[in-house]
Design brief:
The complex is a heterodimer of chains A (138) and B (434). Chain A is of the alpha/beta class and 138 residues long. Chain A is built from six helices and five strands. Chain B is 39% helix and 12% strand. Chain B has helices spanning 2-13, 25-32, 67-71, 73-84, 97-110, 124-133, 163-174, 183-192, 253-266, 289-298, 314-319, 338-345, 358-363, 377-393, 396-407, 411-422; strands at 19-23, 47-51, 116-120, 139-143, 177-180, 200-202, 240-244, 274-278, 303-305, 323-327, 349-352, 369-371. Classes of the chains: A alpha/beta (138), B alpha/beta (434). The interface between A and B is medium-sized, with 34 and 25 residues.
């Protein structure tokens, strides 16, 4: 059985999980690593932080300088998720053994990118459709 | 994409030797979403030349990402957009200009071309047409959308002085013909380029009989029964509503689901009525998560998302639906390929779009059509209720009238006048390459 880890750093990614589960083939074990609590049925869930999931924030031109500073100082939502995931033994274990790792939203990409160093063989992909394609269902 | 395929096929049917320049299969698979069933519909006489196309901004392999892209995607995308537009002012597609022009020139060298038809977007295809124009080959520009007009807001996107504006000025001035999908877009361009207005034509998308299980164009029965489908053939207590088409963020999806919920609450629809939403979510292969969340909200009240439907299964999809819902983004310039397919089914249609939409002019006069008066839950609920009533009460006369109405919008009938005129371009089309 292949294992796939879905990384959810924001509300946007959580919304894509049911669709992924619906389209995923039966021989795939799906594990969701989540930044906050959210009810998701039919999958293993690893919650890495207690704070609630936030929607992705649009970075306007006005907010851009502050956003860049936040990212550099690792104060952004994505940085928080990356840090929490990297400190969680269950999440690390899932990432190390996964065949496919999918970031379901932009805030999950930094953790997925970091997972590339933990797991040299997994396909690490951005977005639901790319993940499903990797499982050869689309 | 389908318009391009159907146009190439129609040229081939008319006796032209057609070569299609397009991207590799992997491009469609990776970036835009693909319908493999379409490939089998390419006329066997057509040569397909594939020009590799890379689209780094849509690359989903995170292992290839730089630190900047992973952590500051907005900054990376700005840098990438600047890079993309160095050789041609079109984000994402600009770098394709050189390989596309090279491929076009190669074809011209080996087997000279009589006419180029460039279909956009991407508008970089127009640059390839322009490259062959330098060698004396006339071209037709086929606008499936608009380059310098935002069709949703009506705002002008590029002045004549901008790079895009200068490119478009030159391309339109040199074009043999310029085609648009509807009259409002054509009129906007005719006003902007008054000197060239006489070469601008509307070539509406139309519908293809073979896709819906009807007649093959060119047969004796052409124009007879459009579709074998019937109206109101479903279980009366379980009416099935369906929307089939690409759902972008401009489609009033949230309002539609609010309206659906209200219609059920008011009793305008039976409790077991269902609404199937099918097609791509967003323009690209990656579904828009915000839209997925909106659809998820409707799941408890009979709304389902059924994913993309291959073109070859479109007829089957329509046959399982009692009432079609046409939800479109706002704007008088907005049209849709789907509206023509909807017409062809002969089934009731509920419009959930701006009344000024170009789709309204296509549907106005259809005997089984109703439209929402505004994009709010209450008006949409009422329109959905009327759609259901239509599906229950339509008689054979109305069904026949609906099919007869649709017949004028067949795709071959949209293209025929232009093909007749363009025949003059080549002295002997059957022996020429177009």
């Amino acid at each position: 059985m292949r294992s796939i880890v879905l990384l959810v750093g924001a509300v946007d990614g959580a919304a894509a999980v049911p669709e992924f589960v619906r389209q995923a083939p039966d021989d795939v074990r799906v594990c969701v690593v989540l930044a906050g609590s959210a009810p998701i049925e039919g999958v293993d869930v690893i919650v890495v932080s207690a704070s609630p999931l936030r929607p992705l924030r649009k970075v306007t031109a006005k907010r851009a300088p502050r956003h860049i500073v936040d990212v550099l100082l690792r104060r952004s939502n994505a940085a928080g998720f990356e840090r929490a995931g990297a400190r969680n033994p269950a999440a690390l274990g899932a990432l190390e053994s996964a065949d496919v790792i999918v970031a379901l939203d932009a805030d999950a990409v930094p953790l997925a990118w970091r997972a590339g160093r933990l797991n040299r063989s997994a396909a690490i992909l951005n977005g639901l459709q790319a993940g499903l394609r990797a499982l050869r269902v689309t | 994409m389908y318009r391009a395929l159907a146009t190439a096929n129609e040229f081939a049917r008319s006796g032209w030797r057609v070569t299609v320049l397009t991207a590799g299969r992997d491009t469609f698979e990776q970036y835009t979403g693909t319908d493999p069933s379409l490939e089998s519909q390419i006329d066997p006489s057509i040569d397909v030349v594939r020009v590799p196309f890379e689209w780094p901004a849509q690359d989903a392999d995170i292992r290839t990402y730089s630190w900047l892209r992973a952590h500051l995607p907005q900054v990376w995308h700005r840098w990438r957009a600047a890079l993309d537009t160095v050789t041609f002012p079109e984000r994402g597609y600009g770098p394709w200009r050189a390989p596309l022009e090279r491929a076009a020139r190669r074809i011209q060298e080996t087997d000279p071309v009589d006419l180029v038809l460039a279909t956009a977007n991407p508008y970089v295809t127009f640059a390839a047409a322009d490259a062959l124009f330098e060698e004396g080959v006339p071209y037709v520009l086929d606008y499936r959308d608009a380059w310098t007009l935002d069709v949703f807001s009506g705002v002008t996107l590029a002045s004549h002085r901008s790079r895009v504006g200068r490119w478009e000025d030159r391309l339109i001035a040199r074009a043999r013909e310029i085609w648009f999908v509807n009259a409002p877009i054509r009129d906007w361009h005719a006003d902007r380029y008054r000197v060239h207005a006489d070469r601008m034509h509307v070539v509406a998308n139309g519908w293809d009989p073979e896709l819906l299980g009807g007649d093959e164009p060119g047969t004796e029965t052409r124009g007879a029964a459009v579709s074998p489908m019937t109206v109101g053939d479903g279980d009366r207590s379980h009416p099935r509503f369906g929307y089939l088409g690409t759902m972008t963020r401009m489609v009033p999806l949230a309002a539609l689901i609010d309206g659906w919920e209200l219609a059920k609450r008011r009793g305008s629809l039976p409790p077991h009525a269902t609404l199937s939403l099918a097609g791509y979510l967003g323009y690209f292969a990656v579904p828009d998560p915000e839209m997925l969340a909106t659809i998820e909200r409707g799941r408890a009240i009979g709304v389902s998302y059924d994913g993309p439907v291959p073109k070859q299964d479109v007829g089957d999809y329509y046959s399982r639906v009692d009432v079609l819902v046409l939800a479109l983004g706002a704007g008088r310039y907005v049209t849709s390929g789907k509206v023509f397919e909807y017409l062809a089914t002969g089934k009731p249609i509920v419009s959930v779009h701006d009344a000024r939409s170009a789709a309204t002019s296509v549907l106005d006069g259809h005997p089984l059509w109703t439209a929402t008066e505004s994009i709010d839950a209450s008006a949409i609920a009422a329109a959905l209720g009327r759609g259901w009533q239509l599906s229950q009460t339509a008689d054979a006369t109305q069904r026949d009238a609906a099919r007869a109405y649709a017949d004028r919008f067949r795709r071959d009938r949209q293209l025929a006048p232009r093909l007749r005129v363009l025949r003059d371009v080549a002295t002997t089309p059957s022996e020429s390459r177009g």
